[in-house]
Specification:
It is found in: Cell membrane; Membrane. This is Probable membrane transporter protein. Strand 1 and strand 2 form a beta hairpin. The longest helix is centred in the N-terminal third of the chain and has 25 residues, at 46-70. The chain has 11 helices and 2 strands, in the order H-H-H-H-H-H-E-E-H-H-H-H-H. By secondary structure, the protein is mostly helical. The two termini are 26 Å apart. Strands 1-2 form a two-stranded antiparallel sheet. Helix 1 packs across helix 3 (46-70). The radius of gyration is 17 Å and the shape is globular.
């Protein structure tokens, strides 16, 4: 019965993660902790939840990236540049994770998600009120609404931000998308659909690095991972399918709602 639940959790995580570029860890980690607390799964520590989540996220990232590749939504050059920062950050975050208790983990994770949701409330128009500066690297993209959008970034700034994203991703087991997608949309003016697709590509790369660190430390429950992976794979395909049919504003709204709900749930759990 518990493994059927994990398949369902995997499908939900894959769908939501791929839909808004989060990677799925924001669903998998709290779900594993909750199922462990309810004794539906053997004792689940934060470290075990994170390590298992990151292994599963590899397949979510790969499945999503393959789907978005067909629609030409992935900015590969930007994704590889972001990985230069997120890779080392993911390794350091994975090591820091071993110092967190369950109570502190839930509180910090919840506060992190809620703060990102509020951060995302400053939409692209508000972020671009001041005169736009010429970015050293620029791209153009035609949205689903037919609007041509120009976005860009400074390479050094992008690498630094990606390092922070990788750190949180490795520490919380979330793949980093919950921070990287808002950063791409607000700071670099990425169209939401491109931000989501590129985030999943970066998550695929950074999760491979951070998951290896957790495997080395023995933080992966392989039976859980094997149950989660099939659900995540097909869920990612479903999320990408839905994403391609939504307006940009709708993608952002869904992202904010998911972050707030999960954040509040974890904050409550830390005090219960």
């Amino acid at each position: 019965m518990e493994y059927i639940l994990l398949v369902m959790v995997g499908f939900l995580a894959g769908t939501i993660g791929s839909l808004v570029g989060l990677g799925g860890g924001v669903i998998i980690v709290p779900s594993l902790l909750f199922l462990g607390a309810m004794h539906w799964l053997p004792h689940v520590t934060p470290q075990l939840a994170v390590g298992t989540s990151l292994v599963v996220i590899i397949f979510n990232g790969l499945s999503s990236t393959l789907s978005y590749m067909k629609e030409k939504m992935v900015d590969y050059k930007s994704g590889l540049l972001f990985f230069i920062g997120s890779g080392p950050g993911a390794i350091i975050g994975a090591w820091v994770n071993n110092t967190l208790s369950l109570q502190h983990f839930s509180l910090y994770f919840g506060l992190f998600l809620v703060s990102i949701a509020f951060f995302l409330s400053f939409n692209k128009k508000n972020a671009a009120r001041s005169e736009r500066k010429a970015f050293p690297i620029t791209r153009t993209y035609v949205t689903n609404e037919g609007e041509t959008v120009t976005y860009g970034y400074h390479p050094l700034v992008a690498i630094v931000i990606s390092f922070v994203v990788g750190f949180f991703g490795g520490m919380f087991g979330i793949g980093g998308g919950s921070l990287m997608v808002p950063a791409m949309i607000i700071l670099f003016l990425f169209p939401p659909h491109v931000a989501v697709a590129t985030s999943m590509f970066m998550i695929f790369l950074s999760s491979m690095v951070s998951s290896l660190t957790h495997v080395f430390m023995g933080n992966v429950q392989w039976l859980f991972a094997l149950a989660l992976i099939p659900g995540v794979w097909f869920g990612a395909k479903t999320g990408a399918f839905i994403n391609k049919r939504l307006r940009s504003k709708t993608v952002v709204i869904v992202l904010r709602i998911v972050l707030v709900l999960l954040g509040i749930r974890l904050i409550y759990q830390s005090f219960s």
